[in-house]
Amino acid sequence: MLCVADDPAPRVRKERMVLVIDDDPAVGPLVRGLLRAGGEAALDVHAEYTLKGGIAALPASDLCVVLLDLRLPDVDGLETIRLLRRAVSNDVPVIAITADGDRDLALAALREGADDFLLKTELSAATLARTIRYAIERASFRRSRREAEAAIRATLDRLDVAVKAGRLGVWEYDPMACIFGCSAEHAALMGLDAADAAVPYDTLAARVHPDDRDVFARVRLGEGDSDVVERNEFRVLMPDGRVRFIEVHWRPLTQSEQDAHGCAPRIAGVSADVTERFLSSEREIQSQRMQAIGEVAAGIAHDLGNMLLLGTAAIREFDEEPLSARAAEARDNLRLANEQARELVSSLLALAKPGRNAEKESDAIDLGTLAETFVRFLRCVVPARIRITVDRGTAPAFVMLSSTHLRQVLMNLILNARDAILADGDEEGHIEVRVRAATAPNSLHVVEVLDDGPGISADALRTIFEPFVRARPGSSGVGLGLAIVRSIVLGARGSVELTNRPEGGTVARVVLPAAAPREMPVPSGTTGTPAHDDPSAQEPRPVVALVEPRDYVRRVIADGLAEGGLDVREFHTIGDVVAALETGLRPDAMVLHHAPPMCDADAAISAARRVGSPSPSIVISGASDGAPTSASSVLRTPFSVIELLRVVRGLLVSGAIS
């Protein structure tokens, strides 16, 4: 290695250095002299005579520029620039130097990565200094630009993460061309193909709810102060019929921002889907309304339940009387209507106070059979000009749900269809109940109620299953029917939807899980299963002690428990059952009414334990009565016999009754 210096003493390296790689020993001193003459004395010069030596000197050099001869002893031609570029940083400029005859070679070197070239015959102080200075400045500019681009990429990456995390859409509107430049997220929020980038204003406006298009038009007009970010909300109608609430923040670009775009004034903004926030607010308001309704309902439910029990008892008085076929049918309809009224009270309380009476006694019910039977019952409340037909399919469709709940679902859907047809003023109408059984085990059965009425508006469809929402303004209902339907169906792990039919009218579609094979009823006499009508195959029935002071109520409850397969022993007072316990009665369970002045139920429970009969106890208690501390279960009024039977059976299944 040759160090070009004025004296043989060790050279102190200067801050900036020029590396000369040339096989001519005179080039190094020439370059130093020309740089000093050109006013670049601060640049030190280090010379090497081979490419290998120059590359070896790179780590030890604080380089600012390399002067490279393209014809060296160890490497010749363009290969010199290629090898050097692999070894030196792109921030270090490389200037090719060559003879006059190699001008084409020098131009080719520019394409291989050289920053400039010089002909040896044209070297002068001014030319050399200017070429080196410009090469250094260009390298500095490249470095600054690269750093700025990296910073911009990092910022854009962070912005992209923020936009995606916030599920935001980004857009820019050109009022002159009436075109929105949309990100894929904004296009998706507006219900458009996510690939759409440039969307005409009219295309987006067509997606906006008609009542909100004046709000959306504010963006088009650019109304607002450029120093203030405007905020608007509007609804978007999605292709599948859903309604989405969109919030946009936007402002016109300032003059400097417009100039930076190099185009006409524009408006920029972001959009977000706030549907869930809106619905949450609606649910909170609805929750407050339901709480108020619950307080009122709880106050009247007890007395109403007792009145309904009295009605049930009165109806049973006709069971032993000889009646005509028509009178017997009327009695059966009254009994069914009375039971439905009791369930309606219970459902209202369940809506007002979620979790109360949420579970009902379930059994494997065939949807087709129940639909055919119940439609005949509803025929009396549907005008004769409206036909009701049932298409139950060919296969049975068993589901695990109480028959009372299934009747509630059908009744509300059919009466809604009736009201829709009557509201349309048609002289005739048609309601069809369609049952479709699942083809695979443990899959889903479908029940549909179709009508040919006027259909339901998109706005109403969005909230149709919310409590106190009516399908049509001015209708006579209070808006609880479909809310009860949804509560029952969701509780059975099913789903319900209401849509408009293309040919007119609506279809209410209820999907319910099919009963598992072990839950389906087995016909009497089936191999391996005791016949229900064979007394010898019947197991002893559990004994239940029933304490109820009111004769008519006790009779209704006793009959219902007996029909459920229980051996019921009736008592008028707590003292009566205590006396029976002390004389040998050993019931499997006790059902006690806990209401003044006939308490204390705890006394009867203690007596049972004292005589060695720790029977589980189900205490019937009013909403304002205190619950016994020793009871196994407390059933608040109003309740149904089916509900009571479910509680007793639950204790049997759990092993609480020996």
- List low-pLDDT spans: 1-14, 259-264, 354-360, 522-538
Sheet bearing the most strands, described? 6 strands, antiparallel
Q: Radius of gyration, Cα only, in angstroms?
A: 45 Å
Extended strand count: 23
What is the strand arrangement across the widest sheet?
Answer: 8-7-6-11-10-9
Structure write-up:
- The structure is a single chain.
- By secondary structure, the chain is of the alpha/beta class.
- The protein is about 40% helix and about 20% strand.
- It has 19 helices and 23 strands.
- The strands form 5 sheets. Strands 8-7-6-11-10-9 form a 6-stranded antiparallel beta sheet, sandwiched between helices. The chain has a 5-stranded parallel beta sheet with strand order 2-1-3-4-5, sandwiched between helices. It has a 5-stranded mixed beta sheet with strand order 13-15-16-18-17.
- A hairpin with a 5-residue loop joins strand 17 and strand 18.
- Helix 1 (about 25-35) packs across helix 5 and helix 16 (about 550-565) packs across helix 19 (about 640-655).
- The longest helix is centred in the middle third of the chain and has 42 residues, at about 275-315.
- The protein is elongated, with a radius of gyration of 45 Å.
- It starts with 15 loop residues before the first strand and ends with a helix.
- Mean pLDDT is about 75; it is low at about 1-15, about 260-265, about 355-360 and about 520-540.
Secondary structure blueprint with pairings:
Blueprint: E1 16-21, H1 27-37, E2 43-48, H2 51-57, E3 63-69, H3 78-87, E4 94-98, H4 103-111, E5 116-119, H5 125-165, E6 168-174, E7 179-182, H6 184-189, E8 198-200, H7 201-207, H8 213-221, E9 230-237, E10 243-252, H9 255-261, E11 267-273, H10 275-316, H11 325-352, E12 363-366, H12 367-378, E13 386-391, E14 398-401, H13 403-424, E15 429-436, E16 444-451, H14 458-463, H15 481-491, E17 495-500, E18 506-513, E19 543-547, H16 551-563, E20 567-571, H17 574-582, E21 589-594, H18 601-610, E22 617-621, E23 633-636, H19 641-654
Parallel strand pairs: 1-2, 1-3, 3-4, 4-5, 13-15, 19-20, 19-21, 21-22, 22-23
Antiparallel strand pairs: 6-7, 6-11, 7-8, 9-10, 10-11, 12-14, 15-16, 16-18, 17-18
